[in-house]
Amino acid sequence: MRDERSLFINIVALLILSVIGFYIYKVSMDTGKGIKITDNITPQMRVADRFMNKNVIKEESKYVWGGTAENTSANIVTSVVVDYRLFDTTLEVIVLFVTILGFGFVIPKDKRKIIKPTTILNRWAPILMILMLMIGGYMFVNGHLSPGGGFPAGAIISTAVLIGVLAGRKTLSQKTLKIIEAVAGISIFSLGIASFVITGNFFQNFILNDRIGDLFSAGLIPIFYGLIAFKVAAELSNIYFEFYEEC
Amino acid sequence: MNSIVFLIVIPLIAAFLSLFLGKNDKILAYIVTLFNIIFSILILFSGKIPFNVAIGGWRAPYGINYAVTDLTIFFLVLVNVAALLALTSVREIMEYQFYSFYFVLLSSTNGIVLTGDLFNFFLFIELSTFAVAGLISYKRDRLSTGAALKYLILSSTASIFSLAAIGLIYKTLGTLNFADIANKVNNLNEASLSLILILYISSLLVELKIFPFNMWVVKAYEASKTSVNLFIHGMLGTAGIYGVLRILLMVFSKETGKLTLSGNLSSILMLFAFVTVIIGEIGALTEKNMKKILAFSSMAQLGIVLFGISLGSFDALKGVLYIVISNYLAKFVMFLTVNEFSKVSGSTNYLDMKGLGRRYPVLAISFTISALSLMGIPFFAGFWGKISIIGNAVFSGKLELIGAVLILIASVIEGVYYLRISHTFFSQGHEREGRISRVYCLLPMILALVILFIGINPDSFENIISILLDEIKSPEKYIKLILSLK
Amino acid sequence: MIEILRVFLFGFFAIFIGLFFMGIGRKIIARIQLRLGPPFYQAFLDVGKLFSRKSITHNFVMDLGMVMSLAGLVATMLFVPIAGHTAIKTSSNLIVIMYLMAIGYLGMAMAVAASGNPNATIGVSRALTMMLGYEVPFFTVMLGLIIINGTSSLELIANSQAGSILNWNMIKFPLGFIAAEIALQAMMGEKPFDAMIAPAEIASGPMVELSGKYLGLAFLTHAVSIFVETAIIVNLFMGGASNIFTFVLKQFEIYLITVIIEAVFPRFKIEQAVKFLWTVPMSIALLQLVLIVF
Amino acid sequence: MVEIFIIPLVTAFLLAIFIRNKKVVWPLFLISNLYILLKLWTLFGKWEIEKTIYTNYELFGAKLSFTLSNNPLGWYFAFFSAVITLVISVFSLGFNQKTKENVAPIWMLIIFSNLGIFFAADWITFFMMWELMGWTSFFAITNGRDKALNEAKYYLVLSLLGASSMLIGIILLGALTGSFEIFASAYGLVQVFYSEKALSIAAIMLLLFAFFIKSAIFPFYMWPSKVYAVGPEDYITFMSSVMIKYGIYPIAMFIVPVVGSLDLPKILNTANWIQYFVGYLGAISAVLGTILAIFQTDMKKLFAYSSVANMGYILLGFASMNIVGFEGALFHAVNHMVLKAAIFLTLAAVIFRTGESEMHKLGGLVYRMPITFLTFLLGIIAAAGIPPLNGFGSKWMIIQALMSQKMIIFAIAMIFASTGAFMYLFRALASIFLGQLPDRFKDIKEVPLTMLIPMIIMMIGMLLIGVVPGVVMKPLTTALRAVGYNVNIASWTSLEGALKNSTIDLTLVFLIFLGGFVISAIMYILGNKSETVPQEDNYTGGEYPEEWGVNADRFNYSYSFYQPFKEMFEPLLEKISIDEFFASIGRNFEYMSATVQGLFRRGEGAVLLFSIGVLLLILGGWII
Amino acid sequence: MAQLFILSSISLLFIGLFGVLTRKNIVKILIALNIMETGINLLLVAFGYVENGIVPILTSNESIMNLTKMVDPVPQALVLTSIVIGLGTTAFSLALAIRYRYNHNSLSIRASEEEEGVNI
After folding, report:
1. Of the candidates A125, B474, D306, D475, which lies 20 to 30 Å from C225 by C-alpha distance?
2. What is the value of pTM for the model shown?
3. CB–CB contact D619 A19 (8 Å)
4. Is residue B8 one of the residues assigned to a domain?
5. Tens-digit pLDDT profile for residues B439-478
6. Total number of domains constituting chain E
7. Angle between helices D408-432 and C118-149 (to 10 degrees)
């Protein structure tokens, strides 16, 4: 507490937090009628039930392993993210796009000192990069079957780029990254428009009749995930290049 | 009518394209904005309103849906027209990021108005936050960096609150759809609902510039360009008002279309509202910087809007809509005037603008008309709002009466500082170098004439408002529209 | 035609009586101060002398003002019933009388202010201040009488006291009479309240620049004002009179009181005078008023 | 009916277009005013004319409509204000030759609202016109000059406050009586008064508050002195004569009938408390206005306070709740219009020639501007309420009414005020026109003909109304009869009092005065010849002691004219300084403003305040 | 289990909020914000948690039988989104912070007010 104002603010903050805490406690202890926040509500009582049973459109439809369903992704989280609530996911991509754009925009462009990479790093970098790219590729290709998907895949790919940057190997130019980013972004929406043209609904999965559990299943989901992965990778790499450029 | 999504998608695609077009971004911006306006007007006259669009074909409570009702289309047109009007104040060549942010803001404000899903709504708000933060920091000087940072930190905190509320809603009601929530909200426990509402309202009020939540406003307005001010005012502000109307009156309302918050929550909201009005007007009283004055003033106007909403009467809501439209038009006129004048005088201090009203009477008179409308003087649009809100507040109770009196006193203060500025415009000044093209005087004049027209002939606007009120009066129609769609 | 004649008759009568009173007053004061004093007709001699002399004027405003001052008081006089008669048949409204009197003072003030002499201006300013001082208590007394009689006609008030001496307002409302008497002292500009003239201090104040016929007109104005003011008091408090001699006698009684007070008192400063008028006679008058109304 | 509203609007628009061309603006202004006057002339007696505009705008479940109707009382005010306006606009023709700024378009808008206020048949229309007049006055007062800003702001604040209170009052009234029409709401208010006492009284008080502000009644008596001192002189003439009556008209139109028909308990068997409330405010305004006017050195401020005092008289007339008092008040409104216009026109003429409004810097102008002097002389005689001129009759009626109602304190206040009026009026006369002519004004001339004609018209007007009061009283009684009062006027020349046997014939008074004048003139002529000498000859011995630094300019002795009197009142005035009170409010607001601005400039605290907001919400939600 | 998650996430939220409220250094504030975001993510996941639940991924025919045991997939999807938003916020704010440091030569949030001479 270096000055009185800080002391005052600390006390006020503690006060506020304690009141909020006590309020939450009181609400959770409430005994009134109706659904309470502490009630034990299972996913079956929520919209998630339909997502898990994959019968959003037809209530009675049942599905079997290896058969077809309205959404053929085996990973239900993925089907929520990339199919049922695909628009959220695209917006999320846009959020990333905007923030990285803002990042590049406001960061001051002053000179930085370059530290020359060591030989070990320089040598091992390509190998690491290839490994990482492989893992990343695997992740988004298998996003509809197992945990993972576009975002982690993109992050991993961008880490590969980071290693390249650290090793002094300029694998990509910023211009290329920008193009990748834009093309991926536009492609996501182009797919949406395509589905609008084909089925009349935006972002509708128009590749049907796949089998659950197959690698090539789930219609557009892997494609979307791939595009997202590229976009995320390009955007995150952009951050590294922001710093690298000034070297 | 599934093509309504293009209102959001086309600007987003344009945001990507803007990375490459360089100086042609401006043309792209105009094309996209015009597209949005024309498209929304086409929908307005298509005769299919109301309708509901399920994204990806997933029906309402499960997928994301965009609902177009009368209220939606009204605000949609307002937002898109605001975008075009604000774009006209962009004169110099901007870096491409400016346009990218603009496109994202355009798409997100359209999305805020269109969406029927709570989480989607949250995402659009986040998106607009980042876009606005980027736009605020566009100048990248001391002031704008601080302002953007302040705004970003504040709205991130708010977004965490609202995310908690969304989580709680999903946990208790198991749905994220507006209509579904409105359908089920009566099952919710009283205390739990007020917790959720407190968390959610506090984040909404940040966008609505209500007093303890609005520390970002003044700095943000001061630090940014006029066009950005107009974006914040016309697009984000209008969309925010829509959000409040929709969420407080039609989603979390236990009675039809009324603000029925548990406990004294609505009293507290009212308290916030008139404190905001007072704070805004008092803050502007001795201020010299025009942008800050306008920031304080728009804060106060939104305070009146919230006051009207929290009165919980449809007559007052009508007044709110009048205030919204009056504030919407008036602030455009004012910002555009200030923009032109500050270019000639070289500063945003109104004392430096002495005598400009004599050389450019059209601009100065338009400014005066807008000021009078904001004060709620008869013959201008704001009057119809003021009389309705005050009239309903007087009989609602003690707190409401105090609020009404305070708002009237605040409008006196508003009169003092606005007419003082008008006077400064008309007083004797010295000769200056710069010139203002007559073309730029045209837009404020037209907008001021619209204010005057609504003020003299409220019939013209009354019919629109009665349609909007009808929708707010019967949220069950909205619920039926969205949930019964296969 | 007969009206015009009456107007002249009444006017000159008032001037005559006023000058007569003035002369007697000077004599009485001299006697009180153990002097011989001038003869009682000295005032007539003075006026004659002044009118026959050549005089100095500065501009037309002075002429206009002096004429206006006498005109105002003569006009006032024509409203006051003298022993039941007025020059022209009117309701002899008290308020009209009070206001008409002011035009005389205004004319006088205008004339002397036009002379540009600072002493005269000071005198006028004191006179006007004094006016505010005495008008208020005097009016308060009047108000009581007006309210109790339900009329503001001086004639009716006088008539209502007809009969025995016990019907006189002087007897019925002694407090009011005392207040009115004090106010009258100030109204006439007599001794305790003569700060506006104060010969030793501001060289006779308003009169300082007047000479010849202007001073003569001022003399006449004063004479008429004495007549008017005493006549008002007589009508208000002493029940008027049945014939003109009794009336003048009653007027003289009033004037005698004034003159005696004048002879023995020193001078108030102007603010002292106003304060005195607003405290002593005013409270007496208010007390009387309260007694009357409630 | 409609055209008298369209013409001002169109003219205002045209004036705004031709604003730079003085040769067009002022004649156009004049023609428009002439047209309005003629049109109003034709409207006399046609009380049934009405124009309603219907809207879809709903308030309290009823659709609003705006009605303008030719109501008799409104016509009475509108007509005389139009006459005065026309005269002033002739004056403006000459007066505005030199000025840089141009107040005409705004002024025309005010004339529009003027007509609207007097012809409005429902409160909403009335309120709209009222507000229009408020803000336009602000611009008219400043007229683009920075030195007038503070005063204009003061006026604006009061005017907006008044309008706000009026808005609440109207809303209360509308909700109580279910109608916004003025007459209907008056009837309705009388009906519901006993069941909804508190609300009804609140409505009346709120409306009175607004009217008092506009008419500069006691707590708000400061604005005329501030505003008149700085505004453009010709506009100020309009303001002081016409605009200050805006509060009077609705009181006569609404408050008096309502309070008159209520059966409230009487205090001491004289009058009810509302009457006393109104009356005390009127009495305080009359007395305070008089006292303050006595102390002014600026002539426009002096007459501003004089207006305050006169508004006090009018209010006293209303407070008497007596038909004579009522008539007298309305009569005095027009009398005051005429005489204040005359006085302010002469002041404007003086300022036009000398550019000086401090009285002690002027003097002796009578030798250079005799007609102006004569107008001024008649004006102050009228203002003092001295018989042959027009101020007397109405004042007399008001005093009669007060006496007949036994309102002794009000009557005394009125006498005090009108006696005090002699003091300040004479002071103005002596300082401006009499005394010495300063050297620097040796060469000024009488004002041009366009400015003389209005003054002469005003002189004739004052004399005419003073001698033949029927000129105003006839239309007034006709109008009042049309509204439903049982009044009459015996002849063109006489006035009826409230007391027994108190009819006075003003023509007779004039003739008697003439008789007195003849006697006096005979005496004057009888005297020996007189010789005109320069002023200085007599008391300065014909020369100025130059080595003392004294010259003719420095020899003016009217700066602290009533110094002893002032010393008596100073402690009292210091105690009740309303001005200081308002100023301290203003300072507090400025301090708060700086605080709020600081709050928003701070870097930290944003999230803290956010959390405090959440905290408040929690506390609000908690207290179930 | 779920209570534990919720309690820990709420404590994370409070710690973060306290940090945001009281810290002067912008970087510390951003760290606090990140803590809050972590807390909220944990909270959301905890809301969707089922006692002894399994991952909502179909791996075989049996897992279709066990649908009722699966945890709620929707909060996880939301969290996925909110993580990205958190990332974006942090990145943007940090860039702004760097710019702030560059402009004001300080990272204190009071730096901006000190030079403007605010004293309240």
Report:
1. D306
2. 0.90
3. yes
4. no
5. 888 888 999 999 999 888 888 888 888 888 888 888 888 8
6. 1
7. 160
